[in-house]
Amino acid sequence: MDIQVRVWRQSGPSDRGRMVTYDVKDISPDASFLEMIDVLNEKLILDGDDPIAFDHDCREGICGACSMVINGVAHGPEKATTTCQLHMRHFKDGDVIDVEPWRAKAFPVIKDLVVDRTAFDQIIQAGGYISAPTGTAPDAHATPVPKKDADAAFEAATCIGCGACVAACPNGSSMLFTAAKITHLGLMPQGQPERDSRVIDMLQAQDDAGFGGCTNMGECAEVCPKGIPLSLIGRLNSDYRKAVAKS
Amino acid sequence: MAVDTPIPKTKNAAGATATPTPRTVVRPSSVTLKIIMAVSGILLILFLYVHMIGNLKIFLGGTDFDHYAHWLRDLGTPLLPHMWYLWIQRGVLTLAVLAHIYTAAVLTVRAKKARPVKYAHRPKVQGSYAARTMRWGGVIVLLFIIFHILDLTTGTVNPIGDHEHPYANVVADFAPGRWYVTLFYTLAIVAVGFHLWHGIFSAARTLGQQTEKGQRRAKTIAAVLSAVLVVGYLSVPFSVLVGLVD
Questions:
Q1: Neighbours of A113 (CB within 10 A)
Q2: pLDDT tens digits, A167-209
Q3: CB A193 within 8 A of CB A130
Q4: What is the ipTM of this complex?
Q5: What structural domains and CATH numbers belong to chain A?
Q6: CB count, 10 Å around CB of A51?
Q7: H or E stretch including A70?
Q8: Three-state DSSP class for B113?
Q9: Which of A59, A69, A247, B157 has the smallest set of CB atoms within 10 Å of its CB?
Q10: So where does this one cross the membrane (chain B) (predicted)?
Q11: 3-class SS at A13?
């Protein structure tokens, strides 16, 4: 299939950046979206042009590296799918596809489609840990965890920290990400000692990084490649209110 | 152990907390702002419901309606002097409106700053129309509140403006000749309806609603409460317009 892509090109953090149109000919419908960009990049290199910089790592939907806003939707049109798992068969021959980076003040563009997601690391560092004794590993059944809690914690823990929630949010908020981390650790008995300080510190880190506030629109959950539910944000709000009341 | 201990220490030591502490005073967290917005919003919704029930007394006739309006001024007597209750309520409502607007403004500024470069291609957001129009809808509602107070509280822009006979003021206000007042009233009430449709759900979520089942329930309750308000409020001007109330 033949398509046209309009890609955000920005040579560096201080460059203004612009959309540049490229023709991509003879792409297999079975190619992934990233493979399509690979093919385009090979052509650009042969032509002596600068290839498009983009983040990618595992290419199997579990690392959270790929980060493209495709036709205005983070990770493209398929629900619960990362860009690397999105295939060209979901597009039509002759389509014009817009590709942009995540756009947020807290995610500055490094080059083209690559953004700096250090802000997420800062949120994790602020409270994404538990106190665990060192020494021999505890027995696996030493601390019983109700099945319901284990499942819900695991669902939250599937967050791969890609940042699509921020890219989609009209307020540039990272609430779904932070809520997933709060839920994943806060539902487990091992996460209780820091439960209050975690939510306060992580929210502070989120606000300090320049993310906006949540208005419960639900854009984030729509694009989340892992299907993290919007309701977790209510858990963050509730934990935060209780933690502040206690502090 | 020697390696483990310093790590949490540096995190909580004076050096790390010294910088954020003054900032928290200046910059309330986004969730704190949302909680203030939710609580002030709920106060205003409670008022809207009480106000609507009062409005519906117009269908009992002029004597009952005027009697109700006069009773409001003596509410709380003899514990409170004449008009005191009304002024206390006005004070609380004004504070709630100001808190609601202030927090909305701060969060809007933060949201605008959070995305300095706009998307070149951005389809309509998947959230509802109600969710998308919270900010401008709120501005329309504010303008209406100002007009409404000048119209039916102070009587400044009302054709009669007689404090002793509110029933007559209402009937004169929504007379067919003043169709533009009815139109503005209708637009504003519909804007309130949309605002609450998302607002009630959003307030529940902000105050900690966190289950999938509860989310469906909160959205249904929000839709029903908003719809009842819109119908209740619009029934008055349209009854005047068609001559049901005169």
A1: 25
A2: 999 999 999 999 999 999 999 999 999 999 999 999 999 999 9
A3: yes
A4: 0.94
A5: 3-100 (3.10.20.30), 117-132+141-246 (1.10.1060.10)
A6: 14
A7: strand A69-70
A8: helix
A9: A247
A10: 31-50, 84-109, 129-150, 179-200, 221-245
A11: coil
As a whole number of angstroms, the distance between CA B22 and CA A84 comes to 43
Q: Please answer yes or no on whether A214 and B34 come within 8 Å at the CB atom.
A: yes
**Cβ-contact A162, A82 below 8 angstroms:** yes
Segment (H or E) for B36: helix B30-56
Specify the 3-state DSSP secondary structure of A116.
coil
Which chain A residues are Cβ-neighbours of B107 within 8 angstroms?
171, 212-213, 215
Chain-chain contact of B107 with A213 (C-beta, under 8 angstroms): yes
Asked whether the CA dihedral A132, A133, A135, A139 is positive or negative, the reply is negative
% of chain A beyond a pLDDT of 90: 94
**Identity at B27, one-letter amino acid code:** R
Instruction: Please give the single-letter amino acid code of residue A6.
Output: R
Residue B192, CA distances (Å) to A112, A216, B124 in order: 43, 18, 22
How many C-beta atoms lie closer than 10 Å to residue B34's C-beta?
Answer: 26
Considering only the beta carbons, identify the residue of B4, B29, B211 that sits closest to A231: B211
Long-range contacts of A74-79 (CB under 8 A, 24+ apart): A74/A102, A74/A164, A74/A165, A74/A167, A74/A168, A74/A223, A75/A162, A75/A164, A75/A223, A75/A225, A76/A33, A79/A222, A79/A227
At the top level of CATH, which class does the domain B31-114+127-241 belong to? mainly alpha
pLDDT one-digit tens code per residue, A115-169: 999 999 999 999 999 988 888 888 888 889 999 999 999 999 999 999 999 999 9
With a CB cutoff of 8 Å and minimum separation 6, the contacts of A227 are A79, A80, A158, A221
Residue A86 in contact with residue A78, Cβ under 8 Å? Answer: yes
